Amino acid sequence: VSAFYTENGEDPFGVVMWPGSLHAARQLCAWPETVRNKTVLVLGAGTGLEALTAATLGATRVLATDVNQLTLALLADAARGAGLDRQIDTHVFDLSGSEPLPCADVAVFADVLYTRELTAHVARRCAE
């Protein structure tokens, strides 16, 4: 999938499992009370590992967001396959846009700081 995206000049980042996502999921597993019975917002959900992990650990609701509709469709399929589709909602959301962050108890984002421009947008979002 990554080769297809790269060859066609598109962003491959959301369809690849990156180390930061794995680390974030491990941190959630180490402290499950962080997400249990909470609403979790995943920014730049990509492959959905953090969203699936939060739902598995008992999050009441997980809103997985990304700018890439393909990654969100794949995540929705994975959630259905894992029986977590009642907990996980997907939503197209652009960190660089003006739409306010959705409300949540916990925000999770990993591997979204891969350009200076995106880093500035994430910093602005952290201030929200």
What does this structure look like?
With 128 residues, the chain is of the alpha/beta class. The chain has a single domain (2-127), classed as Rossmann fold, CATH 3.40.50.150. 40% of the residues lie in helices and 14% in strands. The chain contains 5 helices and 4 strands; from the N terminus they run ααβαβαββα. It has helices spanning 2-7, 19-30, 49-56, 69-81, 116-127; strands spanning 39-42, 61-66, 88-92, 106-108. It has a 4-stranded parallel sheet, covered by helices on one side. Strand 2 (61-66), helix 4 (69-81) and strand 3 form a beta-alpha-beta unit. The longest helix has 13 residues, at 69-81. The chain is globular and about 35 Å long.
List the helices and strands and how they pair.
Blueprint: H1 2-7, H2 19-30, E1 39-42, H3 49-56, E2 61-66, H4 69-81, E3 88-92, E4 106-108, H5 116-127
Descriptive terms for the model:
alpha/beta, Rossmann fold, 4-stranded parallel sheet, 128 residues
Question: Nutshell version of this structure?
Answer:
Pfam families: PrmA (PF06325). The protein has 128 residues and is of the alpha/beta class.
Series of secondary-structure elements, N-terminal to C-terminal: HHEHEHEEH
Q: Determine the fraction of residues in helical runs and give it as a percent range.
A: 25-40%
Q: Summarize the main sheet.
A: 4 strands, parallel
CATH topology (fold) name: Rossmann fold
How many strand segments? 4
End-to-end gap: 34 Å
Low-pLDDT runs of 5+ residues are none
Instruction: Examine the secondary-structure arrangement and name the CATH architecture.
Output: 3-Layer(aba) Sandwich
**For the residues shown, what is the average pLDDT?**
88
- From the spread of the alpha carbons, the general shape counts as globular
Number of helices: 5
Text of the CATH class: Alpha Beta
Share of residues in strands: 5-15%
CATH H-tier superfamily:
Vaccinia Virus protein VP39
The secondary structure category is alpha/beta
Radius of gyration based on Cα positions: 14 Å
Strand order of the largest sheet: 3-2-1-4
The domain tally reads 1
Protein name: ETFB lysine methyltransferase
Family: Belongs to the methyltransferase superfamily. ETFBKMT family.
InterPro entries: Ribosomal_L11_MeTrfase_PrmA, SAM-dependent_MTases_sf
GO molecular function, one term: protein-lysine N-methyltransferase activity
